[in-house]
Amino acid sequence: MLANRHRLPHRLITALLALATAAVLGLTGAATATATELNGTTDNGEFSLYSGPDTTAMVLDLYTSKDNFGYLSWPVYGGNPNDRNESYWNNDSYTWHVYTDANRGGRHGWVSPGVMSNASSTFRRQVSSAYYTG
Predict the structure, then answer these.
(1) Which helix (H) or strand (E) holds 105?
(2) Which of 133, 128, 134 is nearest to 60 (CA)?
(3) Mean pLDDT over residues 48-70, rounded?
(4) Which CATH superfamily is domain 38-133 in?
(5) Distance of alpha carbon 18 from alpha carbon 40, whole angstroms
């Protein structure tokens, strides 16, 4: 999870700059839009895995790297998302790497920014961890 240390300060700085700009403009009551991880909705800046084909059914929306899906649950519906993905959408500006086992184990694949697709037979119902690279 080394990548989290590099990404979080940048996002924190961005959020602080947005708040400072809002204060200068007198808009302190306005909300700042940010990604909310694991809420069942794919926001800008997130990588999402779906339990159904064509980005349908339950969604696991990730903002930070996850080394073991066995410790997660599907937002909204519950249940374990480990090895239950059929499609994905990288709505992030980072490339995401997926693995068929926890902790970067097993087969490795990657999803470039903006890609939305069904999982190949190698990764369909097989993904157990995901990491982004900046």
Answers:
(1) strand 105-111
(2) 128
(3) 98
(4) Crystallins (2.60.20.10)
(5) 25
Does the pLDDT at position 81 exceed 80?
yes
Yes or no: say if 131 and 3 are a contact pair by the CB < 8 Å rule.
Answer: yes
d(CA 90, CA 112): 7
CB atoms within 10 A of CB 47: 29
Q: Is the separation of the CB atoms in 62 and 46 below 8 Å?
A: yes
Look-up of token digits 């690279």: 133
Tokens of 90: 């990288």
Higher-pLDDT residue of 49, 27 = 49
Residue range 3-41, pLDDT digits in tens: 544 455 555 455 444 444 444 334 333 334 579 999 999
19 φ/ψ angles, rounded to the nearest 5 degrees: -65, -40
Collapsing DSSP to helix, strand or coil, 77 comes out as coil
Domain boundaries, the chain: 38-133
How many residues are listed for the chain in this entry?
A: 134
Strand runs (DSSP E) across 19-86, as ranges?
46-52, 56-62
Its pTM stands at: 0.76
Give the per-residue pLDDT at 95. 98
